[in-house]
Amino acid sequence: MWDIIKSTTPEILWAGIKYTIPIAVISFIIGLVIAVITALIKTSKPRGNAVVKGLWQLLKAIFSFYVWLFRSTPLIVQLFIVFYGLPNVGLQLNAWTAGICTFSLNTGAYASETIRAAISSIPRSQWEAAYSIGMTYQQVLFKIIFPQAFRIAIPPLSNSFIGLVKDTSLASTITIADMFLVSQQIASHNYQPLLMYSIVAAVYAIFCSLLTILQYYMEKRLSRYITAEGE
């Protein structure tokens, strides 16, 4: 048993470094960008004539539908639609691109609600006070609202990233040779599925534990500033 563990663990770890972690990191970064845009559109109240307000409401409805769609359907179904379904309408994506697109859109939908809630938690009086001293919308957003909302959103966003690392195991269903697929392939040769799946579970646990420790130190560091502001 130990010989199998010593010979197969490096291969599984390499798959994690080569595919699992890059997919998770890239998807999370893109997802955050999508989430911020979505949250801003859903929380903003545009100024202007009836036409501008009507177009903004239409845009808000589109993004609300996007969030509803990706939060209401299983991630594995989304992966299958993008990778196996879209070629039927002439859009052919390789496995890597399909995985990144799907994970990013899924993350963006969930993270947008986290960011929206964080932005909404900032008292409206802070917006009004900033406007009263002549600050523009962009200045208020980037200098006052975002720094506070970021601190509030860190814990749930960190949890989302840890969840995404585990969800990347579904990439194996669209032929990406991540850790889970590699463990399946090895198990089909050595006929030790329990051992191989236990090894890959342990590797996922190690990755997620390291991220949890990082999350703890980030929250601890940010809490120092919150405490200082409250004194």
TrEMBL record:
- Which Pfam families does the annotation name? BPD_transp_1
Family assignment from sequence similarity: Belongs to the binding-protein-dependent transport system permease family.
Query: What NCBIfam families would the database entry show?
Result: HEQRo_perm_3TM
- What membrane topology is annotated for this entry? Multi-pass membrane protein
The species is Limosilactobacillus coleohominis 101-4-CHN
How far does the signal peptide extend, from start to end residue?
A: none
* A GO CC term assigned to this protein in UniProt: ATP-binding cassette (ABC) transporter complex
Name the keywords, alphabetized: Amino-acid transport, Cell membrane, Membrane, Transmembrane, Transmembrane helix, Transport
- Please give the Gene Ontology molecular function terms for this protein: L-cystine transmembrane transporter activity
The protein depicted here goes by the name ABC transporter, permease protein
> Mind telling me which Gene3D superfamilies this protein's record contains?
MetI-like (1.10.3720.10)
| Protein localization | Cell membrane
Listed transmembrane segments: 20-41, 62-86, 194-214
